[in-house]
Structures are given as C-alpha cells and as structure tokens.
Amino acid sequence: MTYELLKGLSPAEIEHVLALGTRMKVPAGGPLFQLGDDADRVFLIERGRVRLTLPIKVREREENILIEESAPGQLVGWSAMIPPYRFTLRASVPLETEVIAIPRDALQRYFEAQPVQGQKILLNLAIVMGHRLQLVQAMWVREIQRAVEQRSAIGATAHSSASK
Amino acid sequence: MEMFLMAVCMSVFGMGVAALAFGAATRKPSAPLPPPAIPIAKAAPARFFVAPTIPEVASHQLPIEALLAQIENHVRIERAAAESFVQFPTNDMLHSKTTSTFVN
Question: Which ipTM was obtained for this model?
C-alpha cells in the first residue's frame, strides 16, 4: 500500500507514523465525518471507498452531491491540518471501509521530533492540497465559461426576437 | 256481328296486355337512390410541422434519483476533464466540450 501522505518515507518511518493513529472500520453507508465538524484528525484510507459530498437543494430536498471519491492510499480530512480545523465536506462510505485516523496533535509532535520526515509529509500534504485546488479551479472556470455561453445564447435570442 | 265485336274486343284487350308487358320489359330502371348519408369525419387540419412523437422531458419532470445520477455523472465527467487540463494545461483542454447530459 502506498499512502500519498507518506511518499518518500522509509518503511520503518511509515510504520512509525501509522502507529500514531488508530484503525477504524466504518460500516457501509456510515458517515466518517460531517460538514462543519471539528477536524482534529486526518484519515488514511486502508480499504474501501470514501465519498466526499456537499449538500445542495434539489426540489426543496437537501441532497448530498458527490464532489470527490477517494480510494485506498489516499488522504481525506486534511482540514485537520489547517485553521479553522473544521471539515468543509461530508465524508461517507458506500461500502465497509477501513481507515487509519491520525490525530493532528500526534502528527505535530512527530514533526517536531522528526523535522526531516515532517517536511516530507508536509510536502506531500501540499501536493494533495495543490492538486485539489487545481482541479476545483479548472472545474469552476469551466462552469463559468458555460454560464457565459448560456447568457450569450439567451442574449442573442432576445436580440433577434426584439429586432423582428 | 256479335262474334266480330267479341273478336275485336279480345284483340284490343290482348294488344293492351301485350303493350303493358312490352313496356314493363323495356322500362328504363328508375334513377338510383342517393346513397345513404355517411357521416364524414371532420378533416384533420393540415400539419406541416408535426409535433415530435417523443416529448422532451424537462429536467423538473425527471425522477429525483435520475436527476441526482445525472448530477453525479456530470461531476465525474467534469472532474476527469479538469484532471486532463491539470496534466496538459492548454486553453483547448480547459474549455473542451462536455458530453454531460446534465448541461446538454
């Protein structure tokens, strides 16, 4: 298993970091965390899937819309590493899933004790966050572009109707 | 004389019967009756632009589960498009057309 947060660490170092956390089994359909919850730990996915969702209103009903689906080896819950330490998405599992939950406090103590390894982990975290930012940025610009095209089309239709 | 008159009367009578029979045999058939009136259906108005047989289903008519599935599929497609852009960032890649049924 390759954990994206622990790339570049030796197997012994990986074992050390994993030992900081606790393994959790989440039953199928269960939540891992809720939007707005205190974020005091990150999760490394060992087995299963995690769906990250945001609520939107669909016909007066609130529905959780998939934003991202994470697989074994991936990190979820990095809001635990940045202020204000609150989850900005909801995480749930579509099938029984096993994660390793590593508390922020334990990680920070490890970084202080092992700064070289800490730097590698923080660089990995920056890569994960940067990739997410790039994706969301591209998706957002695509939506804006689509909105512009729709407005232009509506404007052109209104203009041709008015000139008749 | 009486016998003569009797023969004349019989002849006239026989000629009358023969004339009637001849007339009956050679009479033209009477004009045909007009056919019974058949109710005619009101002609359908001419259609040059026929309405589509498959009505378009507006998004508000979709079952909510189908709509949610469309949205989820849209997010997956858009995410894949964004991944492609991040790998090979170009204008064309950023604004490539989507096949998502949610917006098309």
Answer: 0.81
CB-nearest partner of A142 from B64, B83, B94: B94
Q: Is residue B21 part of a domain?
A: no
The verdict on a CB contact (< 8 Å) between B94 and A66 is no
* Structural domain harbouring B74: 59-104
What pLDDT score does B17 carry? 65
Domain count, chain B: 1
Chain B environment of A136 (Cβ under 8 Å): 82
> Which residue does chain A place closest to B84, by CA atoms?
A135
Non-local (6+) Cβ contacts of A30 within 8 A are: A92, A93
Nearest chain B Cα distance for residue A147, angstroms: 10
pTM for the model: 0.72
Q: Are A110 and A81 in contact (CB under 8 A)?
A: no
Task: Read off the pLDDT of residues B58-94 as tens digits, 9 standing for 90 and up.
Answer: 556 788 889 999 999 999 999 999 999 999 999 999 9
- Which stretches of chain A are DSSP H helices? 11-18, 104-113, 115-163
Q: What is the DSSP string of chain B?
A: -HHHHHHHHHHHHHHHHHHHHHHHHHPPPPPPPPPPP-PPPPPPPP-SSPPPSS----GGGS-HHHHHHHHHHHHHHHHHHHHHHHHS--HHHHTPPP--TTT-
